[in-house]
Amino acid sequence: MVTIWNDFLYTPLFNLLVWMYNGWAGGNLGWAVVYLTIILRIVLLPFSLINDYNRVKNQALYMEIKEIEKAYQNDDVVKKQEIRKAMKNRRVQPWAKVIVLGIQALVLVLLYQVFIDGLTGERIIEVLYPSVAWPGVMNTYFYGFDLGMRHSLVWPGIVGLFLMAEIYFNFRRFKGKIEKRDLTYFVLFPLSVFVLLWVLPMVKSLFILTSLIFSAILGNIARVFFQEMVKRRFVKLPK
Question: CB–CB of 155/206 below 8 Å?
């Protein structure tokens, strides 16, 4: 099991990271991590698109249920039947989201191992492929922040604020009256992510932030295309 982990997961990812560090990133490990994240998200693009399509369908389902509740507000029996029927017809594929999140979690663990094992010359030489040039002493600073630094407030804070903004705009678009549980989620989820990233190396925050930005851009673009497809079967989505 250890051999499989090292030979087929850790070593290939480490070499890809060093290869990008030597080339595209111009000797900046932070940008190498950003490029690695983008490449990973491009590889996972089919699953991400399925997940975005499911999200649009769920948003349409939410609006349809609201219409059903309004139309049958005086008949609870029919209302429940119509809601069950709508939920049965609007099936989604949750496995797509599981694959995207699962592979990203795997890469997070591998990046953690990279920084735990160290980036010293001796360690790098041991795992480098012959075709990948030795980078020498690696530059682990990204805009003045050490990628291996823990207990940083800045980058985990940026991730937390980004999540709060994303949740806020989603609530504004698809929620009518904000409930107490919505406010709890709005505060506690970003706060939990902030605390978790605060105790981990800063490279985790950079990876997650890059992935979140990619998801936000892809989600908005995909929504424009998928909305037209969903409109044929679902109620009109809010703009």
Answer: yes
Per-domain boundaries in the chain: 2-149+199-233
Q: SS3 for 2-67, per residue?
A: HHHHHHHHHHHHHHHHHHHHHCCCCCCHHHHHHHHHHHHHHHCHHHHHHHHHHHHHHHHHHHHHHH
CB atoms < 10 A from the CB of 103, how many?
Answer: 15
* pLDDT value for 237: 47
Find the mean pLDDT for residues 47-60. 82
The two tokens of residue 209 are 């932030």
User: Which residue in this structure is represented by tokens 């949750």?
Assistant: 94
With beta carbons less than 8 A apart as the criterion, state whether 157 and 194 touch.
Answer: yes
What pLDDT does residue 234 have?
54
Mean model confidence pLDDT for the chain:
85
Backbone angles phi, psi at 149, to 5 degrees: -70, 135
The neighbouring-strand residues paired with 146 are: 141
Q: In the block, which residue shows the tokens 């992510």? A: 193
Taken in order 150, 108, 215, 62, is the CA torsion positive or negative?
negative
pLDDT confidence bin for 66, thresholds 50/70/90: confident
